[in-house]
Amino acid sequence: MDDQLKKNYIEDLEDISCDYLVVGSGAGGSVACSELIKKNKDVILVEEGSHYKIDHFKGSIADSFSKVWRNSGVTPILGNPSFGYGEGMCLGGGTYINGGLIYRTADTVLQDWEQRLKSKIYSKENLKPIFEKIEKNLNVTVEKNEIDKNKDSQILFDISKKNNIKCVNVRRAIKNCKRNNKCTTGCVSGAKQSTLQNYIYPAAAKGLRILTNTRAEKILLKNNKPFKLKVKKDQKYFKIKFNNIILACGPIQTPLLIKKSFNNTSLKSRMHVHHNLRLNVVFNKPLNSEIGTIFTSQIQEYINDGVLFSASNFDKSYLFSGLNNLNSNQYEFLKENINFLATYLFQIKATNEVKIFNFNNIPVLHYNLSESDFIKIKKYLLLFSKMMFEIGAKKIYLPFSNNCEATNVDEVKKSLDFNKIKNLDMVSVHGMSSARMSLDNTPNSFFNIEGRSFEYENLYCVDASILPTSTIESPQGSIMALSHSITERNF
Question: What pTM did the predictor assign?
Answer without folding.
Answer: 0.95
